[in-house]
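Fill in residues.
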């Protein structure tokens, strides 16, 4: 993806994510990746970890990761998941949603699939609301852009998440 995809303008103005061919994705992750994009959370790819690695969904930049964290708290807090899913920053795409396996046991593909479907179903039911919330909260505003870009450049990711939370309640 070109560098502009990771900037504030692409985040604030993009109503939908990118089109991703579900046949190119891991079957366990395809539903979640496609649903995130329909809700306006640009996700690039997903991998179930192949029993060895952490399952993950690559998001397009830190703004998408921070936005997912806000939405995770708002919409997914009561979602019963088998693994703890959280955002990690600093990878090649900027942000990544990963599952944690604190038990050290082998990854269970059935549980990963249950988690991704559970998250996707909730996001699917709220997709229009999520798109409108993002559009109405972060529409063109040079001051917001400057604040957000500064947090991204200085890697203040938790501050960015908190800032977004405040903005959606204003």
């Amino acid at each position: 993806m070109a560098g502009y995809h990771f900037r504030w303008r692409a985040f604030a103005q993009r109503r939908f994510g990118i089109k991703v061919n579900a046949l190119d994705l891991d079957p366990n992750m395809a539903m979640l990746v496609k649903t995130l994009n329909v809700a306006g959370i640009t996700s690039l790819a997903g991998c179930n970890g192949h029993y060895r690695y952490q399952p993950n969904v690559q998001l397009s930049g830190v703004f998408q990761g921070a936005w997912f964290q806000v939405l995770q708290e708002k919409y997914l807090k009561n979602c019963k998941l088998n693994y703890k899913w959280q955002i990690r920053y600093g990878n090649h795409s900027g942000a990544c949603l990963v599952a944690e396996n604190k038990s050290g046991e082998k990854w269970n593909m059935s549980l990963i699939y249950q988690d991704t479907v559970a998250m996707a179903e909730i996001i699917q039911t709220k997709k229009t609301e999520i798109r409108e919330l993002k559009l109405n909260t972060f529409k063109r505003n040079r001051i917001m852009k400057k604040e957000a870009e500064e947090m991204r450049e200085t890697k203040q990711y938790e501050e960015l998440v908190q800032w977004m939370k405040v903005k959606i309640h204003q």
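The beta strands are 43-47, 56-60, 84-89, 94-100.
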